[in-house]
Amino acid sequence: MISPLLVVGILVAMFVAYNIGGSTTGPAFGPAVGADAISKPVAAALMGVFFFLGAWTLGRNVVTKLGSELVVDTGVFTLEASIAVLFFIGIALLVGNVFGVPASTSMTAVGAIAGLGLAGGVLDLAVMGEIVIWWVVSPIIGFWVSLIIGRYFYARLNRMVAMERSTGPLFDVDRSGAVPIPRVHRTTNRRELAGTATVVAIGCLMAFSSGTSNIANAVAPLVGSGELAMDPAIVFGGIAVAVGAFTIARRTLETMGSDITELPLTAAIVVASVSSTLVVFLSALGIPASFVIIATMSIVGLGWGRATRPMTASEFVTGEESAPVTVDALAADEEGESLPPIGAEDAADIPSPGALFNPVTTARVVLMQNVVPAIATIGAYLTFRFVPVFGI
């Protein structure tokens, strides 16, 4: 017999997962939907499938880390405390949404659980230190990898993946048989197909990486309490994410929902690939990663690399200078502008890194991405420390 309190806990966890599905589907599949490569229902279906695959495989490591290893005594994870932790996660994320900042659900979840552990005197400082170290290191890695790509490889990469959409649809659906069969439209070219497949594949990678890291944010407290087993917890969370993808994500898909998807196509692919790969790597280690912060620093690194690019990779190897090198903003490459080589224009005409990203906005985002988890941590600590009902 399932207790009513456990039902409440499952519903609260599914509500958190529901919001995760709504907020992450847009950044993952916004470019593909915006390019008319796939429809919104297809994007939602892909989000649900690949999120679940990530959660079912590597996501278990992060659930275990948050639910069992972050505190030395899992006895503090009573059912009441688990529900309260999920409540603080939701409240803190709401603060981020009010300020228009995509806060890190992973950092917020860790903060709320850490507040519980501090109040009970059972926080494992070694595990917490390991998580914090990776939180500092991973954005730095994302920054430098993206900077190198922007500095030496972006122009050539852009020429490889840039595409112009044909006037017709990508596919026609042959409905003459019992089963509808999609066929390539007569106006669709190979380059267009390859670019579309790349954008969709990147979206699937982002959905998978979200599943590896974010499933723990919704279900780790309940799994840690011992009231809910790992497998059904992941199933419940995956269902809620899919529902969120099919419902509230429709608006974020229309607007492409984040700074990442507002970038030019090539830049979006670079940022998504670097960030998702780092998140999957950290999830394999059981580290709850912040995709938002890694992606933010990747955007900054890519812009900085483009603004300071002196030569291409082939020029660096051969020592020769080629004529058309580009130092303008990311969007200039995307529009195919032909720009003079370095040295042909006045140094004052070379854009500064600040021209490629807004330093004020970046500072506000980074600040709020640290304030939101702090709210969850402090709120959870004060509640569990001084409210007698929890008995911590």
TrEMBL record:
Keyword Transmembrane helix assigned: yes
Organism domain of life: Archaea
Residue intervals passing through the bilayer: 44-63, 75-99, 132-154, 193-212, 232-249, 261-281, 287-305
Major subcellular location class: membrane
Record's keyword terms, sorted: Membrane, Phosphate transport, Transmembrane, Transmembrane helix, Transport
Main function: Potential transporter for phosphate.
PANTHER family: PHOSPHATE TRANSPORTER
Name assigned to this protein: Phosphate transporter
Provenance organism: Halobellus rubicundus
Biological classification of the source: Archaea, Methanobacteriati, Methanobacteriota, Stenosarchaea group, Halobacteria
